[in-house]
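Page 37, top half.
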Amino acid sequence: MKSLFISGLLVTLMVWLSACSQTPPAPAPDYLLPGASHSGHSPLQIRVSLASYLDQGGIVLQLSDTELHVARQHRWAEPLGSQLQRALAATLASQTTLHELGKLDLQLSRFQGVQSNGGDVAMITGTWQFTHEEQVQRGTIEWQGPIGGEGYAALVKALDQGWQEVGQSITQALK
């Protein structure tokens, strides 16, 4: 009886120790827009405002016309608005001959992946307004592009490409 008890205790102890020895799954990576790592100085004062659901830290996927998923595991490495501002400043600095000082305000309503039957896409929408002295110039942001692969890293790259193209189109409008 005593040996049966000791055997049971040893088996229980071994199961408990083996459960403790397994390493927990690695956390999902955080993401940074590649364009946000480039440095550049624009003569413009840039401010990016985000729809509240975009400003929660998680990468956003639109699942249907009425459903959004804000990722809990796949998150931006730093606030999205800061990354977008820095990436846009770099794009404007490399693309533009703007020597004027002015203020560029952007309001983004979408910066996300969208699942659709025709294939998943990255989408950026919003508005911008450039103000210099008494002059005001406005425009809309409507960009959509394919996601070149699977997973969040591919979505981030597609959104970065789109953001660079948005910056280029703003530059053209301001010339």
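Page 37, bottom half:
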Amino acid sequence: MADEDAEEGQEWDALRMRDDEEMGFFTELALHETERWIQAITRKKFEYADDFRKSLGNGVLLCELLNNLQAGTIKRINKLPGAIAGLDNVNVFLAACEKTFGLKPTQLFDSSDLEDLTQRAIADEIKKNPINYIIQV
């Protein structure tokens, strides 16, 4: 009985690993297709070819995408360097997606999804506001 349980556990582990590999493959495929589509509409290359999140993080390309889909959607794009300008652009993009294109909040990503998730950024964020992380745990 124990051998059967162990064998069944190994089979499930193998299936989960295959599912994870397939999900990774299809995620990469979707990211590549999305990048290609954004570049085709905006006629601009991603600034960081190997980092989808970082290329969209300042929100400029997202705002330009909407303006190419419907002229004048975004009146002002904040091109100043810095995280605050990027957050402003992403929030303007998300608001325009709702107002102009009729998307629901459940169909949109959260602006924090584009934040820097490197270990250093996470460590810096924990130092700044530890209570938020403690509550989540």
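Margin note: The two ends are 37 Å apart (CA to CA).
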